[in-house]
Amino acid sequence: xxxxxxxxxxxxxxxxxxxxxxxxxxxxxxxxxxxxxxxxxxxxxxxxxxxxxxxxxxxxxxxxxxxxxxxxxxxxxxxxxxxxxxxxxxxxxxxxxxxxxxxxxxx
Length: 107
Ligand SMILES: [Zn+2]
Description:
Layout: H1 11-30, E1 34-37, E2 43-46, H2 56-65, H3 69-82, H4 88-92
Antiparallel strand pairs: 1-2
Helix pairs in contact: 1-3
């Protein structure tokens, strides 16, 4: 999955990713997109359409890096609902979901 930290991105790809991240942040703020924490402590986003190919983990890292208040609130809610805490080790290990947090894997 392409990520914002990829070195060979074209300016167009970078713009598309920035727009996708902005849509995610806005969607989280509006509640149209939900953060989901898995039992491993990794994170997924449910309802994020049109993500320009950015993976959930990549998006999480990008928004966390800017200390997004929308992300923080969405994660706090997801942790409260699931009873699991986000673990940076799980995210670093690449635990991820392709279906908004229903199933998880590291492939
Ligand atoms: Zn995968």
